[in-house]
Amino acid sequence: MRHFSFQAEAISMTDPRRKRHINTPSGPKKREVDPSTFKMSRPAEGRKEIPKPQESRSQGRRHQRNDRGNNDRKGGRNQGGNRQGGRNHQGNRPRQQKLERPKALEGEEWARVIEHDTKEHVVTAMSEKTLAFCRLKVRTDCGVMTPSQRLYIGTDAAQREQVTGILGMARRDRMSNMAKMDMPLVVQMFVEEHAQYFVDEFYNKAGPISLKVHGFELLPDVGKKKAGQMVAARNSVGVFASLEELNTSCNIDAAELLARRFVQELEDPAMAPRLTELLLPVEA
Fold first, then answer.
1. Range(s) of the domain holding residue 138
2. 245 in a structural domain
């Protein structure tokens, strides 16, 4: 009887000399392409353009007549005069633009120049009654305007010689640096021109606004001590007769202090109490 040795068979399966290469079936080989015989495929073609229909002779003549009529109308308008500016063929001045008045400028008749843009012919101005800032369109031949120059912005066309329109209100944060620098000076010049009014209505009438605060303390750089000295100087003379007497007695520049207070209120709408509302408009 023949005996098999499983151990010997297992060893033979792990013999390193055993051939391990296994032939696996492979697919058909790819055909090699000769580069010299390779040709690019033709690209896809888009939609062919459809030729536009040509105009007939009658349609072409009709378009020519329409173009000729439009040119004649344009030429007639230019010969008749340009309404936007300059003079027409008869030598008359162009009609002025109608003033569309914002609500903030109701009742205003005069304004002070702060800045004049000679390129755009636009003036940034300040109204005299309420110190409201506005932008005005002026004539191109009015020359350069200086700060604090007065401009009539009322509704009387006979007096409106330089202003042709009101563009709207002006915001201080959008003004140029030059306009921001000139604005306090313009306000001070306005106060100096109405010095007697402000002396009588403020400096001669100001009193305590609370148990601890006097009206003079609303002015910049004026504390309790300085306010007490101003009250004592006023009591010694009764009332201040003029701005010069006020400045000499109190050793201050009254117009500058009041103008600085006005500018602070214009910059801060929440500041209270507001002297601009108590003292303006100026009553002649």
1. 103-174
2. yes
